[in-house]
TrEMBL record:
GO terms for molecular function: hydrolase activity, acting on ester bonds. This is Lysophospholipase L1. Residues 43-219 form the SGNH hydrolase-type esterase domain. InterPro entries: SGNH_hydro (IPR013830), SGNH_hydro_sf (IPR036514).
């Protein structure tokens, strides 16, 4: 394969998006509705939760609150603890720094792509992911039925990965997702597969402007996939 040094440098720079925090957008609290019977929702994760390169309204969790509203389920308080580049260990630390003492009616977790991107072991991921599930449970008053986990999407479909071995990327992402699915089963927590959506919906409109993350349209599909679970949790 012919090499293009300048393009490789650009890819290296783009790759830092996974590893560096580009903007101080972690730990957000978004007031969605003032309905007195409104619910509370905490979303935890990395760039896919904070919505790197998309507007706040296009984040998957924010779109989920709007879908719930259409079904007369109102989210009064929506908190987000997430940052681009975070691994499971960094998310755990970020949660500690937030010092949350309240509980939520629903908690969502989407984490692990940076563990895979940095070639961290699935064994480490398992241990730290298990710890995060316990934290999620604590945030719901130890009610695992109020927690949902979204699988790691496949960033191998993005233009950024054009010179990578996409089959290998898919295999690695599947390994991490298999661990997450297994641990969710052990805890009795719902595991939602959005990886298949990321692999099937591969049009350019599904990719964010940075050519690495996904667009609001893709996040909307994830929100749709999580909707029924969210309604069951909040009923």
């Amino acid at each position: 394969m012919t090499r293009f040094p300048c393009f490789s440098l650009a890819l290296l720079f783009a790759g830092l998006i996974f590893l560096k925090t580009l903007m101080p957008q972690s730990q957000k609290s978004v007031m969605i509705s003032q309905a007195p019977s409104g619910k509370s929702f905490l979303a935890l994760g990395d760039s896919y939760t904070i919505g790197e390169s998309v507007e706040n309204k296009d984040r998957w969790s924010v779109q989920l609150t709007q879908l719930l509203r259409k079904d007369s389920v109102f989210i009064q308080k929506h908190d987000i603890i997430a940052r681009s580049g975070w691994t499971t260990a960094e998310l755990i630390e970020g949660i500690k720094q937030r010092k949350i003492t309240e509980t939520y009616d629903m908690v969502a977790l989407l984490i692990g792509v940076n563990n895979q991107y940095r070639s961290q072991s699935v064994e480490t991921y398992r241990w730290e992911f298990r710890k995060l599930l316990k934290i999620c449970s604590k945030f719901t008053g130890n009610k695992e039925s109020k927690v949902m986990v979204l699988s790691i999407p496949d960033w191998g479909v993005t233009p950024f990965a054009r010179n990578r071995d996409k089959n290998q990327l898919s295999r690695e992402i599947d390994e991490f997702n298999n661990v997450a699915r297994e641990e969710c089963g052990n805890f009795g927590i719902t595991f939602i597969d959005i990886t298949s959506i990321s692999r099937q919906q591969t049009g350019p409109e599904m990719i964010a402007s940075d050519n690495l993350h996904f667009s609001g349209l893709m996040y909307g599909l994830w929100a749709q996939k999580a909707l029924e679970t969210a309604k069951q949790i909040l009923k």
